Amino acid sequence: MNTIKYLAAATAFLCAATAVSCSDNDEPQEETVNHIYLNVPDGTTSIVQGTDESVTVAVTLSSAAKQAMEIEFGVDATDPALVIEDNPVSIAAGSTTGYFTVKASSTVTLTESASYSFKLVSTGLYDLKENVTVTVLPAPEESNLTEEQKALVAGWKTKYGVDLTPWIGNIKLTGTLRFPGDGVRDAFVAPGSVNLAGSTTFSLSADSDSDTPVLDMVENPMGMADYLYRTFLRLTVDDKEYFALEDDGTGLELMELINWNANTSETFGVTLPGLRITSIANGKATVEFVAEGENYIYGSNGEPIYNAEYEMDLTYNWATSWIPFNYNYTAWSRQLNLVENGDPLALELLTYGVSAAPASYLGINDVLEDVWEIDEDADGVANLYVTPRGEIDFNAGTMTFEFPFDHADQYGYSRVNVVYSLK
Length: 423
Known about the structure:
The chain is α+β, with helices and mostly antiparallel strands. The chain contains seven helices and 25 strands. Helix 5 crosses helix 6. The radius of gyration is 25 Å and the shape is globular. The N and C termini lie far apart (85 Å).
């Protein structure tokens, strides 16, 4: 018996050491799929048409290439206003990284912004695990203000001695988002810093009056559009640890209910409306951009969604002050449509926070007070909370913001710093 045990153990060791199959079928082992992760190292995720601006996209493999390889990418759209250069991407043997560059197309003219992600064209033992989104902004017009808006701008110039005209259109930005880490999902465990760059499109809000200018960020607000979308996906359909389970869970229920998963074709947009320019004096002003009250989930009729069983209007979270990013996401539109048409499961899931709405996961705690109250020495995590502030310096041609922000899987606030500069 001891001899038999010895031979069995020796055979098992030989199989492991030589990495060959010792099964009865003697089947060859499957080759490992190499995952591809796209990211934008400098944070620039927007391009203005009619300029020479470009975005450099880093292509990172999950394991080093065994031999020199080329990977061809395409824009995931029909007739896109975006072209890829340095394509296919070359990755040397033993390396994990390559790059391609995208620029605005000279043959497609936009009248409104368009956002694009990427797809694999070449085939091989790799898949696209993480994408990025690049937004192309239309070339600025000479003046897209109505006569009424021009009159408001002229009135503010007379009353306060400042000109809002240069701040309407595509404005360049630089910034950072410092992330504290300490989440439970793999993507959010480590602290880090995210670069914010590119351009934001500003427009004059319909809420403006003769006393108070109000601006809306209608594209890439705070340079955070790509960050917000990628983070939202990592908290939902890309999250195989807690949300997008294969055979169980409320996340799976929602995904099946609205036909939503990591491979469905969705569109995502985000704005930041209602930036009030106040306390204008000596060429400077305060920018007020924090919303206060109850963070209701509004229906298509503009009224809060009501759950009769619990006799309550539904809210995205319990925060009473927040940065009012306004999201437009197709999967959420499908869930909301079911809720409004009386689907009991859609309403039940939404009531318990199982949602396809980005606002359910992004910016979930108060920003006018530090609800985390982190003790850096005791908790071992940086306290990045800061009171939100915004300022515009008309003389220097700058607009600056600093504010806290968090999402559903982090311990403490992130700190966002953004500076807009006129050319």
